[in-house]
Design goal:
The structure is a homodimer of 121-residue chains. Chain A has 121 residues and is an alpha+beta fold. The first copy, chain A, folds into two domains: 62 residues, Arc Repressor Mutant, subunit A; 59 residues, Dna Ligase, domain 1 (2-Layer Sandwich), CATH 3.30.1490. In chain A, the strands form two sheets. A three-stranded mixed β-sheet of chain A has the order 4-3-5. Chain A has a two-stranded antiparallel ribbon with strand order 1-2. In chain A, strand 1 and strand 2 form a beta hairpin. In chain A, helix 2 crosses helix 3. Chain A starts with a helix and ends with a helix. Chains A and B meet through helix 4, strand 5 and helix 5 of A and helix 4, strand 5 and helix 5 of B. Chain A binds a DNA duplex (30 and 30 nucleotides) through helix 3.
Chain lengths: 121, 121
DNA sequence: AATGATAATAGTAACGGTTATCAATAACGA
DNA sequence: TCGTTATTGATAACCGTTACTATTATCATT
């Protein structure tokens, strides 16, 4: 299961993993795939990337990085980490009613080069 | 409908709006609420805030701002905009296979003061 | 080998949130 | 007033995920 996710060069969802793994364990069930993926993310071997507009994606890349999404085709790509202002979390904490601010979720949107060329035609 | 969302001092979801509006239009349907909320966001009068782990929230505040979420109770609060590095989008564009990078989604996580006090007990 | 306790699994039902469908009603214009 | 178009309420379908349950592995102990 881990191998299936790790071999993906994109960000597979549970169904993709299910189909991959089914080739070796033909009667595995989708529920087992979900359980295994949840266990792997709990162990930190992969990362679950929850989305509002579609299935969760499972990211073989556990290094610090962000994602960018093409708003035309929906494709998702990794981007390297960005240096954010050092005092950002602290200033957010001061500006809010929060006792602790320690998580940031950052993602980008745009048009991938493939889509940009398509619309140029 | 607009009034219902605007009067909320939090970020209501469709069901909340539905219950509010039902008091004045008793047999309105949830579908109509969804349609109206979608129309209002299309017009820019409110903003839809799509989430992975629960219903969409509708934000009466259309000014530039971000959100912070308490990972204990789930409550969501507005935070004022943060000044991000000027060259951020451009550097992401260079680091990616994207022709255009023009959207940023940023949100914060932490523990709200109410939850912080609860766990102190 | 046989047993029993424990865990894992497949299959499927249920769930929550949203969207689609469609007949009935309302609004509008000639 | 009539016919056309748009809007609505009611409900079914949808999608991704989780819960449930009966069955099957697993495995240590006799």
């Amino acid at each position: 299961m881990l191998a299936a996710v790790k071999m993906a060069k994109h960000h597979p969802d549970a169904k993709w993993v299910y189909e991959k793994v089914s080739r070796e364990i033909p009667n595995i069930s989708l529920g087992t795939v979900y359980r295994a993926l949840a266990a792997l993310s709990a162990e930190g071997l992969i990362r679950e990337y929850r989305r509002a507009d579609g299935p969760s994606l499972y990211d073989p890349n556990t290094e610090d990085h962000f994602h960018i999404r093409c708003r035309s085709c929906g494709r998702i790509e990794d981007v390297p980490p960005v240096q954010l202002p050092d005092d950002m979390l602290e200033s957010i904490r001061r500006a809010s009613e929060f006792a602790r601010v320690d998580q940031v979720r950052l993602e980008f949107g745009g048009i991938c080069s493939a889509c940009a060329e398509k619309t140029r035609e």
